[in-house]
């Protein structure tokens, strides 16, 4: 359907019309959700070229598309490609939206996750602490995004050898997720699995990278083009 809509818009409105560009972004998101990352990447790059020409680099849609491209790189494990784009997105969102806007905070979280995935825990830690502090302030401690920030920070603490701190924070994340999301929610179960593995002294590192990658991609996919990236 997206392909047919795009073809009609290109014919009737022209390739540079905002609605046509929006349909291209929707199709790119669909490719991403299907795991067709090469197709998502090439189409998102085309979307960015058109948005840069038509809308300008600081337009919210342009910034979202940049974030989407970084997420596509991240989903493929191409962290070195994703990182500079995430940094640019964060800088632009700070300038355009402000430090405390949820999209800006999300960009901090994305960048922190990229640092963590590359084993750069010392860089990931302060950024994850900042994300947690801001989400508590802006959204409240029991908001699902705040609980995710607790979960993510606990993982980095564990990777840095701060096992007791990690267990304490993951335990708090688990208790709150049980209350807010319910005991059977996938994120609640995820926190429980990490906590159990740490308390039992088992290595959870191999699963960590793939779980974080899946989690990031899942969070992006559920967002619409007009709301945020996929």
Automatic annotation (TrEMBL):
Domain of life: Eukaryota
Pfam assignment, any one: TPR_12
GO biological process terms, semicolon-separated: microtubule-based movement
InterPro entries (UniProt xref): Kinesin_light, TPR-like_helical_dom_sf, TPR_rpt
Assigned GO CC terms: cytoplasm; kinesin complex; microtubule
SMART domains: TPR (SM00028)
Compartments where located: Cytoplasm, Cytoskeleton
Keyword ATP-binding: no
This protein's UniProt keywords: Coiled coil, Cytoplasm, Cytoskeleton, Microtubule, Motor protein, Repeat, TPR repeat
Molecular-function GO term, any one: kinesin binding
Family stated for the protein in its record: Belongs to the kinesin light chain family.
Protein name, entry field: Tetratricopeptide repeat-domain-containing protein
Organism: Rhypophila decipiens
Lineage: Eukaryota, Fungi, Dikarya, Ascomycota, Pezizomycotina
